[in-house]
Design brief:
This protein has 68 residues and is an all-alpha fold. The chain contains three helices and no strands.
Length: 68
């Protein structure tokens, strides 16, 4: 059986093959999750949470002072 793609240049055959490639693999998803976990861990170690909490406390104090 002859495919219609056999009548076109080889580049179109590559486009046809690319159409059927699957998405990200399990390994790629695992690497993304690991990168996020490292970011969360480093954020906790360097006290980013305390800094953000301080910003919210300052905002709360300013609002409380304005409302009397």
């Amino acid at each position: 059986m002859v495919s219609i793609l056999s009548f076109f240049p080889a580049g179109l055959g590559k486009l046809h093959a690319a159409k059927y490639q699957k998405g990200a693999t399990l390994i790629e998803y695992a690497l993304i999750v690991a990168l996020i976990a490292v970011g969360v861990f480093l954020g906790a170690q360097f006290g980013i949470g305390e800094t953000i909490q301080g910003l919210f406390e300052d905002a709360n104090t300013a609002i409380t002072e304005q409302t009397g």
